[in-house]
Amino acid sequence: AKKLVEVKNLQKHFEVGKGKILKAVNDISFDVYEGETLGLVGESGCGKSTTGRTIIRLYRATSGEVIYDGENVHTLKGKKIKKFNRKMQMIFQDPYASLNPRMTVEDIIAEGMDIHDIYQGKERRKRVHHLLETVGLSKEHATRFPHEFSGGQRQRIGIARALALDPEFIIADEPISALDVSIQAQVVNLMKDLQKERGLTYLFIAHDLSMVKHISDRIGVMYLGGMMELADSEDLYEEPLHPYTQALLSSIPIPDPDVEETRERTILIGDVPSPIDPPSGCPFRTRCPEAIDVCAKRKPEWLEARPNHFVACHLYEQ
Ligand code: SF4
Ligand code: MG
Hints:
The chain is α/β, with parallel strands linked by helices.
């Protein structure tokens, strides 16, 4: 498949008071292929949202590159920026906070169309109605306000808004984390259907592995601003290489009580260190049950340990 997005040695640092730098994203590299869903997983504060926001240019990269369809998104100018802004859209975590309570559903969904000055009057309304139906709502909803909807419905409105400009690539930042468990699968299934119909590519951000399992073709695992492991979903679940991924997976309960528990449980102790003062060497070493001497001395390389299975861990270096 074609590479739609190439992230190369991306860093995003924030200044947080006197001489202190928060390394939110610290030198990560990965590709997103056209038509796939890449899941991005990690505890809160690991840099996954910042990664998404830097890719879509809500933040400027501190260093490194984001190449979209062959072009560096951080050096685009003029008309190309407008074109790019249509191709890439975002769905946010909190459908309560991300929809303006004083705007009608119609105006919320059409906001991007208005900004880009496409579709007016009747055409605009028709398109909004069509988008509402596309996400499982109805055109009667167009004149209502966000507070009249449930969380799941609001996220559908957020999805309709993201689709309004016919994007190619959607960054969904924890789109189901704020929803009831019973609603989560519905939203994931809607997103899957839309992907099939429209050939969309997704970066799907979540804080735990069980949430991305059913939607992701591949999954990347982040910790403290770094990418720890990236592989096909099946490989990642069946043969996780990184001790952090192993720990995350062992904390997911086995849903079927008749299946015998054969996994070794790794319970993570301690807290995630501050990204302002991260450990030397491997960022995970202060909590890693398998840390060895070199882990404190040198940052592990990002290497392809198995075909299409990348990991940053000294245990896999030769
Ligand atoms: Fe653990 Fe060392 Fe691998 Fe880091 S590099 S995950 S500390 S074994
Ligand atoms: Mg976040």
